[in-house]
UniProtKB/TrEMBL annotation, chains A, B:
<dbReference type="GO" id="GO:0009862">
    <property type="term" value="P:systemic acquired resistance, salicylic acid mediated signaling pathway"/>
</dbReference>
<keyword id="KW-0808">Transferase</keyword>
<feature type="domain" description="Aminotransferase class I/classII large">
    <location>
        <begin position="47"/>
        <end position="410"/>
    </location>
</feature>
<keyword id="KW-0663">Pyridoxal phosphate</keyword>
<keyword id="KW-0032">Aminotransferase</keyword>
<protein>
    <recommendedName>
        <fullName>Aminotransferase class I/classII large domain-containing protein</fullName>
    </recommendedName>
</protein>
<comment type="similarity">
    <text>Belongs to the class-I pyridoxal-phosphate-dependent aminotransferase family. LL-diaminopimelate aminotransferase subfamily.</text>
</comment>
<dbReference type="GO" id="GO:0008483">
    <property type="term" value="F:transaminase activity"/>
</dbReference>
<dbReference type="InterPro" id="IPR015422">
    <property type="entry name" value="PyrdxlP-dep_Trfase_small"/>
</dbReference>
<dbReference type="InterPro" id="IPR015424">
    <property type="entry name" value="PyrdxlP-dep_Trfase"/>
</dbReference>
<dbReference type="InterPro" id="IPR015421">
    <property type="entry name" value="PyrdxlP-dep_Trfase_major"/>
</dbReference>
<dbReference type="InterPro" id="IPR019942">
    <property type="entry name" value="DapL/ALD1"/>
</dbReference>
<dbReference type="InterPro" id="IPR004839">
    <property type="entry name" value="Aminotransferase_I/II_large"/>
</dbReference>
<dbReference type="Pfam" id="PF00155">
    <property type="entry name" value="Aminotran_1_2"/>
</dbReference>
<dbReference type="GO" id="GO:0030170">
    <property type="term" value="F:pyridoxal phosphate binding"/>
</dbReference>
Amino acid sequence: MFTVCCEAHTTKVSRNANMAKLQAGYLFPEIARRRSAHMLKYPDGQVISLGIGDTTEPIPEVITFGMAKKAHALSTLEGYSGYGAEQGEKQLRAAIASTYYGDLSLEESDIFVSDGAKSDISRLQVMFGSNVTMAVQDPSYPAYVDSSVILGQTGQFQKDVEKYRKIEYMKCNPENGFFPDLSTVSRTDIIFFCSPNNPTGNAATREQLTRLVQFAKDNGSILVYDSAYAMYISDDSPRSIFEIPGAKEVAIEVSSFSKYAGFTGVRLGWTVVPKELLYSDGFPVAKDFNRIVCTTFNGASNISQAGGLACLSPEGLEAMHKVVGFYQENTNIIMETFTSLGFSVYGGKNAPYVWVHFPGQSSWDVFSEILEKTHVVTTPGSGFGPAGDGFIRVSAFGHRGNVLEACKRFKQLYK
Amino acid sequence: MFTVCCEAHTTKVSRNANMAKLQAGYLFPEIARRRSAHMLKYPDGQVISLGIGDTTEPIPEVITFGMAKKAHALSTLEGYSGYGAEQGEKQLRAAIASTYYGDLSLEESDIFVSDGAKSDISRLQVMFGSNVTMAVQDPSYPAYVDSSVILGQTGQFQKDVEKYRKIEYMKCNPENGFFPDLSTVSRTDIIFFCSPNNPTGNAATREQLTRLVQFAKDNGSILVYDSAYAMYISDDSPRSIFEIPGAKEVAIEVSSFSKYAGFTGVRLGWTVVPKELLYSDGFPVAKDFNRIVCTTFNGASNISQAGGLACLSPEGLEAMHKVVGFYQENTNIIMETFTSLGFSVYGGKNAPYVWVHFPGQSSWDVFSEILEKTHVVTTPGSGFGPAGDGFIRVSAFGHRGNVLEACKRFKQLYK
């Protein structure tokens, strides 16, 4: 057949201007791209990835057994189930409530099961809409900022300061102990706060979180608290924002099984929206979140949810603690390495991330140098916000042999 | 401890005005609520649900075996994997492309694997943003309209006509053969179109879809085509919009394993965004959708994806055809029942939904009467849009015994 050559058809639909505001790609696919390019350049380079915080250790059998059992059951008349409740299965919601919030008088109905924290962060933004203002820790996990940009809550990116207009960046650095100086923070509707923090690895203390909750209360703000690394806490820092009195009236908590059970690929998390949290007109936030979940989501996979239930059995909990303990040992090895090399090293104690200072250097330069000379992928701190520049995040997720080998190479590079 | 009584704290965050526009609950949770209330009233009522289109038959073993195998593999060093590509595993994307789009020169990279069509409809809306206008079939699956309202694309709900301002409702009824009279449809940026249709069960013909694509092209619109029931087509109606020449320049296709493999609870679907689809400024829509998927989603569960691969093996495809065939037999039983009772009956031939006409009656009244007198849950047509009033959707998803029993009761009620 013969086709007359023609100009490509373009629709008359305008591209969403908010999408155009986004800078380059989302951070982690960009890291993956650079890793792939490096591997093409050095096919024999023995690349080790301590970049994206991706779990590497097998899921404990007690948990995968629960999922395989559920999969098989789906082939039987008695075990088959179709659509589940969008909010998650009752039994799993109850188990999350009692395991993680047992002493905090939160109930099954306050828990919304999700396919992971990242998805729920976006669903929360869709719920809040485009007319809210927001604050984030600087540096922070990029999904908070990027989802805010997509929803139209921000202005344009300002290249000179590497910030979006209308977002309040709360600087977290060694000088302030990685907790923002709230006296300098402007009032916003929403405050995203992650503790233990990704990327700095710092966990806020009870006293700091008490101040944060009071700050949110005084300003009438809603705190979106990301506790996805809570099981990594090794001291008496709070594991949930709801340990702070009054938090139920100001906070939402987002969490995940990803880093506890190796569920980064299985996909399971949850969000807590207490009934006490109210919009300015007295309308319960939980009611709107329920509507969002019912309308834009159909529940997490029933097999993943069976895995979640297995995670929260006594054997599952013990197995998860072992997984977490393994990565904590990795963290110690990385921290000792950089400390012995004379670097200022932060995080690590309560999180699987080590935050290494390279004063006066550009994060991307350091990232590139480490990759080029050691074949180890890290994450440049500035990818998490302008205050992250001069830092590198080293993830403790890796096989022991790889972590040891990476540390050996770091020692050769910086000796 | 003694607590001084105090007024509840309300935040100063305004409720998203778009959320407030939504009418009552999302349709299907509302049906579930009425069903539960009915069961409380009639504890011995033997309720049969032909309401929400929820699959009831066990998943074929060849498919659950694939998922159980993947679950077990996740406990091994060799079989473990963490974060997958947000767009889905390469192998699954390739299998979807070759199985469903093999002759249509769509590629692996045009396929975005999702946790289901409902989630992707919402992600598409987030991508389009609040400044687009949209059209829907009336009646239609409620997620299109509700997600549009949430994103702020619409005005208020007008109670008198049961429509949201700014949405173009394309009436589909027996008079026009359930295909809209496009000469009366105003130009919009986005056109949602579902074929085989939920709820009317009607599949558009090749000639109709050719006109629809031309209409979209002439108007510079983007067509979001929902083909989640394509495997139910029993005649030569197109199974994909991309069978229509030129569709790649105007259409996105959303689809799902839910109704083919009983994956309503397992959660797996896909969306096709061809590289040829461009915004008015020439920017590829696929690039923005990729950014959305990377930023607001972390991929479908790797176990569900293993299930998807099993679905697309030769044995899996055969097994899915059997599942579909079973529900098609149910559909025939329901159609024959209502036809024999003298009703005008639509749909059914190419879809697992039967659309029964009760001229001059309110859908909710018919719904309530059927539930009260036969303990069978159906879905009121008006729940899908004002043009659905006077109709009831009867779903063919059910065990054979239940379908036969429901039909017996229908015959008693309407004899």
